[in-house]
Request: fold
Amino acid sequence: CMVLKKSIHELSTCSVVNHSAKQLMGKIIMGFSLAKLDSLEPLLELMFEALTIPSRGDAPRSGMALELLAPLLSAITSRLRSGAEASVFHHKTSEQIVTGFIDRVCGVEWARHSIIPMTLALHELRLSGEALVKVSCEVVERMDLVPLNELPSLVFNLMKLGGRGTCARAVFQGILNFFDDLDIKAESTSSSDNPEESISAGDVAQLRYVEGTVMIHFNLLLKNSPDLAKHFFAELKKSGLRHGLSSFRAALLLSMA
Reply:
């Protein structure tokens, strides 16, 4: 257990370089399969710490450790289903353990570096409809913390989550509203003295580039997933009838014509 903790801590604090990180991850995942159930429970706390904002004075963290979240929960689940001692987790089912962890992470502030890795981890977790909607909304609400150049990756993975159906409406609505707000700020650049209401001219140019990349992601995913396209166009139609089409939504539709 101490070896696993130390290895996960190394990933969390960026003390390993990227080319050796994958190798270390493989060894940690193998360790999950060999460790006792009571040794796995404390490791969930390390996953939680990897997600949250570090305290002042703590070493900076990366989001790499969150790539271990799904394998860790899978190891715990398989042990419980095979009849391992459940009292370690107070006789909770594997589903209760997973949803309990999701409830916990939804109640704290996330570090900026952890948003995209957490979104990637969600693809591997088997969540109930309610838990999936809840954590997807948490990701959407934190989109403004992600640098502009990293938004296409986040949007792409959020849309893949939306393809599961239960959270499609919340995901699509959140993405569209987010870019609507960015467009409003971009259009206010020349007339507003408040930096919170506008963005710099350089960022406007980058925003247009990012929006173009996001539109490509939309096109690729929707063309390959009829169900996803159905959810998207239903949300776009509903919002358009209610508020009219924004410049981003209109450009997005034209890109699909």
